[in-house]
Design goal:
Elements: H1 2-28, E1 33-34, E2 37-38, H2 39-68
Antiparallel strand pairs: 1-2
Helix pairs in contact: 1-2
Length: 69
């Protein structure tokens, strides 16, 4: 289970950073939307993905600490 959460955390973190970067570049060029999505929506999706990554990685860390005790 820890390996699965670690994998999900890493993939979600990378995806979140990429989506946030795309939103920032889109808004930096002066556009308000990319396709059918607004730049703010893309930024919120990226932040949510990074939050999921943090929670998954935190769960893995706490499980490892409990296993040591």
């Amino acid at each position: 289970m820890d390996d699965f959460l670690l994998w999900i955390g890493r993939v979600s973190g990378i995806a979140g950073v990429l989506v946030s970067a795309i939103a920032a570049v889109t808004r930096g060029t002066g556009a308000y939307s990319l396709g059918n999505f607004q730049a703010g929506t893309l930024l919120m999706v990226g932040i949510a993905a990074m939050m999921v990554a943090c929670l998954c990685l935190l769960t893995v860390l706490t499980n490892r600490e409990r296993a040591r005790l």
